[in-house]
Amino acid sequence: MKPVLRIGDCLCKNWLKVGGFQRYREVVSSSEDSSPGVFAVFSDSGVYMGLVGSRQAALFPNRIFADLLVRRPSAPVSVDTRLDEALIRFREERVDHFAVVDADGRFVGVISELSMFSTLLEQEAQSREEREVLITQLKAELEYHKLATMAFETTSEGVLITDSTPSVMHVNRAFIETTGYSLEDVVGKNPNLLHSGRQAAEFYKTMWQALRETGGWEGEIWNRRKNGEIYPEWLHINSVRDENGDATHYVGVFSDIGPNKEIQRELQQMAYYDTLTGLPNRRLFLDRLERAVAQSYRLKDGFSLLFIDLDRFKYVNDAYGHELGDGLLKTVAQRIRAVVRESDTVARLGGDEFVAILHDCHDKESCQLVVDKIRQCVNEPIGLGGHELNVSAAIGISFYPEDGETVTDIIRNADVAMYRAKEDGMGVCFYQPEMNVGASERLEIEGAIRRGLANDEFWLAWQPQVDLSDGTLSGAEVLARWTHDGQEIPPGTFIPIAESSGLIDMLGDWVFHQAVHEAMEFKEKCKDCSLKIAVNFSPLQLRGEETFHRITEVMQEKAMEPDMLEMEVTESVIMSKRPGAMELLSRMDDLGVSVAVDDFGTGYSNLSNLKQIRVDKLKIDQSFVCDLELNETSRQIVQAVIMMAHSLGLKVVAEGVETAAQCAALREMGCDYGQGYLYSRPVPLNTLKSLCEKCVDGKIILNTANGKACAPSP
Ligand code: C2E
Ligand code: CA
Ligand code: CA
Q: Which of 314, 479, 677 to mutate to test the pocket of ligand 1 (most atoms within 8 A of CB)?
């Protein structure tokens, strides 16, 4: 700041020093226009005597200055006098000039109002100039500051400035937004109030050491927001040092890498976890299994590997649709996860295949306990989409290192054991070395089915259905047979394999084509007879439009009347109401083809659902029929099914009728048709033909003793 002006700064230049004895005339030449404004009069000895104004001196040019001095001269002003005080004296004393003296009273000059004013103007001009420079500088500085401030405030990076202690001096908006702390919350505080506790003291020690040694540090750090949430940030810290190299400030700039972390986590999740169930996927499973092998090898202990495969899942999926299938897999996954230890790995390999690595289960007994728990939790009915699903699983177990020392061997052997568990229906199987044929056998069967179809190894067996009211032949069910290498392979073995390998379409097409062909041959024998040919259709074969064309094409080709065909579908197909299957069945129904619900009573259906679907027949499952005589509940169920079916306008076929007593009971209950060993086992067409004795009024009379025995007494 500029010092305040004093009188000493405003001395007048327009004065003349004269001696007391000098005369105006002598000191001012007349030619000079400009005479000094005032004369300062000094004695011969140089002592200041007083001032004489130029106007007065000019009036008396011949008088000495000493005479012109006023009798009572104004007191001189001190150099230190303030301008405003001097001004007041000018006003009060009505003089034009004052002499100016220093602190010791020595004359230093003269002032006038004009000199004061001009000095002020001068100074004003000067300070204006200075001010202008300053303003320009300030403006530039301000601009810079503004930019800096703006950058500080608007950057998306959080900024934190501390002094050397370090305590927080300033933070920017991004800091406030990221951490949730306000400026007031943090100013004066140690930045360690952000510590998450996730990183050990060692971490901060290293950080500070780097800061001291190199003046900077950079890295990932986990901090805690005001709300307690922990988040990762990428932090640069720089120290600001003075000329001695000592840190005066620290500036921390960080970015919240949480969102990146989130993306990273999602990517990792996708790469290593199954999206449907959230369980580890095959890749992560293999990784964990490798680790388990390495660890067990090192610690000289072992673990067990479980292969878990749901029974008939494909069937549920096809019958009820994928959404329900997905829900079922999720539920099963959660349940299995819940019954094993936290440290164990449960993974989904794909489809309905799960695996579990049980780390501390190294013997049969402890493993069996876990396996029982898994089976129990899987067996609990699952309520989904208004259905109650009953699921079961087959579990195969192998141990490290006994059943394999490599990842490949342990996996293969657990898989082999699982197939064996499925095959023998026991549901659980510990691996035994002699089993290794089973799994490869399965692959072989697939190839063999393919070749078998090409080599005519398949043939059809016909099983008669009898009209219980008169014992005549009402129709026949077509059952696929496979004679491979001189051996009869049961459909219970090859149908599921054909279904799971996608060969069922090829096989089903062959069956249907052959069935229609043989049926028309049979029809030749008895043109007027009404006879129904019942063909089994796997749920996988019922695919709407496409299947409709395949079926009708064959029927047209062979000129088969639609009312001669009956499609047997399982009740799960009906209950799932899958659009493709439903559309197909109603179009077949429109044509006059009848639809029978197979194995009725074993699935999840309830009778009232049947009302909405266009089916013509129910086939009561043989499990109800076989203990009709012994089990009162079975009797009641069969009776109820028959009554309900009739009230819905459906006919009823009883399957697996083996005894005359069963036949009699069924007839008494009003059952319409019977099928079973009592009348005939499934037989080749020629055998069926030979069973037919004659044709009366469009009805075929069977010549089997049992058929007759079953007929009502006349
Ligand atoms: P299903 O459709 O329930 O066929 C009836 C099964 O019961 C047949 O077994 C038949 O031999 C057997 N059976 C008949 N009467 C009696 C009896 O009195 N007592 C006993 N204990 N059993 C009797 P099969 O031929 O082994 O067929 C098994 C299953 O294989 C069939 O059950 C059917 O689901 C499936 N299947 C057979 N052929 C085909 C086919 O061409 N296509 C499809 N998709 N499935 C087929
Ligand atoms: Ca059937
Ligand atoms: Ca059946």
A: 479
